[in-house]
Amino acid sequence: MATDVLAGPDDPRRAAPAEPPRRTRRRGGTRSGETAAGWLFVAPVIVILGLFMLLPILMALWVSLTDWNGQGSPFTSRVPLVGLDNYTDLFTRDGLARQNFMTSIRNNLYYVGIVVPVQTALALFLALVVNNRMLRGRGFFRAAFYFPSVTSSVAISVVFLFIFANAGAVNRLLALFGIDGPQWFADSRGVLHLLLGALGMDEPPRALTSGGPFGLAWWDWLSGPSVAMCSIIILVVWTTSGTFMLMFLAALQQVPETLEEAGKLDGATRWQRLRFITLPSLRPTMFLVLALGVIGSWQVFDQIYVMSQGDPAKTTLTPAYLSYRTAFRDFEYGSGAAISFVLFLIIILLTLGQRWLLRERDSGRRLRRRADRSGAETGRRS
Amino acid sequence: MAVLTQPGSGPMIHLPGEDDPQPPRRRRRRGGHPAAAFAGYAVLVFFALVFLYPFVIQLGNAFKTEPDAAANPLSPIPSVLDLNSVQRIFDGTDFPLWLGNSTLVTIIVTLGRVFFASLAGYALARLKFSGRRVVFGAVVAMMAVPPVVLLIPKFLVLNQLGLYNSYAALIVPVLVDATGVFVMKQFFESIPVSVEEAARIDGVNAFRMFWSVVLPMARPALITVTIMSFQGSWNELPHTLVAVQDPALFTLPRGLADLVSGSLGKGSQYPLKLGAALLATIPVAIIFVVFQRYFVRGANEGAEKG
C-alpha cells in the first residue's frame, strides 16, 4: 500500500537519461513510426486507467451532488440533484451524517497519531539492530520482521481476532503478569478517558461536555483511541513496521563506512556516532517513512472491515470505512461519495505536501553533501 | 505489545566504550563485545517471536478442537490433534470455490499487469512520441490516487457498463497498475541503449525490439513486478467488495471476510477460520521464501535513492 506514492517522479535527475543521443535523425520515418508504436504501447494503460480511474472519479463527483439510492442509473433526470448538500451535511449541518463523519475523523486522527510515530520508531530500531554487522543470521531476522507485511490483511485480521479474543492469547499473556486484560473488541472506552479516570476524574468537567467544534463535544474529541481501536493499531504497527524497516536498511547501507570510521578515530562513542552520524544521514528516509505512514494511515480499511465494522460505539469508524458503509449498507451513495472526496482531498494535500517538502529536502541534502565533502564536523549540524 | 518491553535495548545503544577501559582499537574487531552481541541477539530473538509467534499460534490452533483452542490459545501444540476443522474447511465452506476464483483472477491479473506495464514502461522510457511526457505525468498522478477513495467510483462504472457481478469486474479494472508502469520505465532507462541501436540497424520493428531484445534483459524488474502484482491481487479485498456480490464469485479474502462476519452459524469456530486463513497465506509465504530479495526490492522500489 505504502509504496505507491513514492517520491521519485519529481526528481529531475530521473528524466535525464531518457534522452538518447539523436543519431537516428537521418531516417525521417523512425520518428513517425515511433509515435504510432508509442501510443499503441501505452494504449492499454491509458484505456484501463482512464476507464477505471479517471472516468469513475468524474462519475462519483456527479453522484456526490445527487441523492441517488442505488436504483437504476444515477445519470437520469429522475435522480434528485441536491447540490452541495452532501458536503455541507458533513461539516455545517447538525445531524447524524456530521456526527458520524466527525467521529470517524477523530478516530483516524488518533490512529495516525499513534501508528505513525510507533511504526517509524520500531522500524528504525529494528533496522539499526539488523544492520549490526557483528550479528549472524541477520537475513533470517530481516525476513521474519518483514513477513507480516506481505501476508493478506484479511488472513492476519482473522489471526488477531483470535489473539485478542476475550480469553485469547493476549489476555492470557497479560494474566501471567497479573493484569486483567480488557474485552478488546467490545470496549469502546477511550484511552484518554481511562487515563483521566485513573487519575480520579470520572465525570467530564462541565466545560467540556458540549460546544466542541463540528457538533462533537470537546470531551468526545478528547477521548483518545478506544480500546478496540488500540488492538487494530497494534495489528497495523505489527504488519507495516517490516516494510519501513527495509527502507531504513536500504538507507543505512548507503551511509559511507568512512564516516563511521572517521567518527571512531575521533573517539566518538557508539551513541555519539548514532546520534551525530547515522541518524542525520537517515533524515531523508525518515521523512519519507513518516510521510508514507501518514498517507497510508488515512486509508485504513481492510482491518476495520474484517475486525470491527466501525464498532463498538463507532469508535473504530474511519472515513474510508464510513464512506463504504454509507454507500453500500445505507444506500446513500451521494453522501458516501462526498465522504470519499473529502478523504481524497485530505490524502492529496498530504501527498502534495510530502512531495513539495521532499523536493526542498533533496536540494538541501545535495548542498549539505557538497559541504560534507570538505568538512569534518558532519553531524554537529543537525 | 511490540513496544512494551525491549529487553537489552539499553545495552545495545551504549555499546563498548564505557565498560572496557580503552583497549587499543586498531583493528576492526569482527566479534565485538560478547555482552553487546548477546544483547543484540536477545533483541532480535524477542522481536522474531513477536513477529512470528502469531503465525505459530495460528498453525497450532488450526489443528485443535474448538474447546481446546478456547482453553489454551497460547499453546502452539494441540492437546489432541484434531483434523475436523481442516476437513470442514473443504466440506463445510466454499473454500475450494474461493481458491479457484482467486487462482484464476490472480493469474490473469498478474499476467496482464506485467505485460501492460512493461509495454508501456518501454514506450515511456525509449520510444519518442509526442505526448509521452503527458502520459507519464498522468501515470505518476494515478499512483497518488488512494485506492480506498475509488471504491464507490469503481462500483458506479462497473454498474453503468453492466459488468457488476462478473469475472470481468474482478479482473479488468485492476489489469493495469500505475506503479508497475513506473517501475518498468525506471528499469528500462537503466539499460544501456547500445543493444537496441545494434538491433535497430538490422531494421527490427518496435514490438520485436521490445519483445525479443529488451524484455529478456529486464528479468529482475519483471520478477519484481510479477511478485508485486501476485501479492497485491491475491490479497485484494476492497475491490472485490464493490465488484461482485454473488457468493459464486468470491475470492479467498472475500470468502474469509465472509466467514468472520458470521456465515458459519453457531460458535466462533476459530480453528476452522484460522486454518482457512493459514491456507490462504501459504502461496504468498512460499513465494516470499523463494523470491525474498525481489520482495525487498519491491518494497524499496521508487523509494528515492540520492
UniProtKB/TrEMBL annotation, chain A:
UniProt region (Disordered), positions on chain: 1-32
Membrane topology recorded in Swiss-Prot or TrEMBL: Multi-pass membrane protein
Family (UniProt): Belongs to the binding-protein-dependent transport system permease family.
Gene behind this protein: lacF_2
Entries under InterPro entries matching the protein: ABC_transporter_permease (IPR051393), MetI-like (IPR000515), MetI-like_sf (IPR035906)
Biological source species: Plantactinospora mayteni
CDD domains: TM_PBP2
Major subcellular site: membrane
Name the record gives this protein: Sugar ABC transporter permease
Keyword terms, alphabetized: Cell membrane, Membrane, Transmembrane, Transmembrane helix, Transport
Pfam families membership: BPD_transp_1
Cell compartment(s), UniProt: Cell membrane
Basic and acidic residues composition bias: residue spans: 10-22
Upper lineage: Bacteria, Bacillati, Actinomycetota, Actinomycetes, Micromonosporales
Transmembrane segments: 36-63, 109-131, 143-165, 226-252, 282-301, 337-358
Domain ABC transmembrane type-1 span(s) in chain numbering: 105-354
TrEMBL record, chain B:
Keyword Nucleotide-binding: no
Transmembrane domains' residue ranges: 35-56, 104-125, 134-155, 167-188, 209-230, 274-296
Taxonomic superkingdom: Bacteria
UniProt xrefs under InterPro entries: MetI-like (IPR000515), MetI-like_sf (IPR035906)
Chain positions covered by the region annotation Disordered: 1-31
Membrane topology per record: Multi-pass membrane protein
Main location: membrane
Compartment(s) where it occurs, according to its Swiss-Prot or TrEMBL record: Cell membrane
Entry-linked Pfam families: BPD_transp_1
Occurrences of domain ABC transmembrane type-1 (ranges): 99-291
Keywords: Cell membrane, Membrane, Transmembrane, Transmembrane helix, Transport
Keyword Iron-sulfur assigned: no
Gene3D superfamilies: MetI-like
Family: Belongs to the binding-protein-dependent transport system permease family.
PANTHER family: ABC TRANSPORTER PERMEASE PROTEIN MG189-RELATED, ABC TRANSPORTER PERMEASE PROTEIN MG189-RELATED-RELATED
Protein name: Sugar ABC transporter permease
Species of origin: Plantactinospora mayteni
